[in-house]
Amino acid sequence: MRAPAAWLFILATVVGCGQTQPLRDGSGPVARGAAPEHAVPTPPPPPRVPAYRGPLRCRLVTPSRARRVISFGFDIENTSDQAFHADIFEPFLDYRITATHAVLHVGDAQIELREPALDVGLHARALDIPPHGTVRLVTPIVLKIDPSTALSHGDPFVWTLVTDATTVRLEATITIASEALAPCAEFVTVSP
């Protein structure tokens, strides 16, 4: 009895360090050195996330940059003619932030970010942005620039950028209503 074509297709795709050979019946690849009956199907590639094309735009704001400590938040602009409504959680922590060196001779090397364990209660609130309006989302997190690689055991709201640079490039990607907005970035210079 022959297997249905769909099963042959599934069995034809297997893992094998990029080196393959035909199955015994010649219908597809199998990992070199593996018997066809032990072939493992290759998982499908992760789905491509389309670029965000919605009405919201993000701007990273850094109102305080004193003594090598950076507080930050996000201005969310609604560029459409329609009001925007979504539910978010406070304190606002639904973002990913990275930092890179801003000095040209250092290159675009990423700076290590130390995030202590954070266990905080969240509560839902409505986010309402009028047409062509802007709302600021604040975060309780502050970034401290410190060249020490020791893990901080202090305040869980203080995240450490392990560097001695006084100018860094911050880039954040925030998520609102299950949509990751286009990244927003800013060069930040702190006082020593």
Structural key phrases:
single chain, 192 residues, mainly beta, Immunoglobulin-like, 2 domains, nine-stranded mixed beta sheet, two-stranded antiparallel ribbon, 1 helix, globular, disordered N terminus
Produce a short descriptive summary.
The chain has one helix at residues 5-12; strands spanning 20-22, 29-31, 56-64, 69-78, 84-90, 95-101, 110-114, 123-129, 134-145, 158-162, 167-176, 179-180, 184-189. By secondary structure, the chain is mostly beta strands. It starts with a helix and ends with a strand.
If you had to describe this structure to a student in words, what would you say it looks like?
- The protein is mainly β.
- The protein has 2 domains: 5-38, no CATH class; 56-189, Sandwich (Immunoglobulin-like), CATH 2.60.40.
- It has 1 helix and 13 strands; from the N terminus they run H-E-E-E-E-E-E-E-E-E-E-E-E-E.
- The protein has one helix spanning 5-12, and strands spanning 20-22, 29-31, 56-64, 69-78, 84-90, 95-101, 110-114, 123-129, 134-145, 158-162, 167-176, 179-180, 184-189.
- Strands 3, 4, 6, 7, 9, 10, 11, 12 and 13 form a 9-stranded mixed sheet that branches.
- Strand 11 and strand 12 form a beta hairpin.
- The chain is globular, with a radius of gyration of 24 Å.
- The N and C termini lie far apart (77 Å).
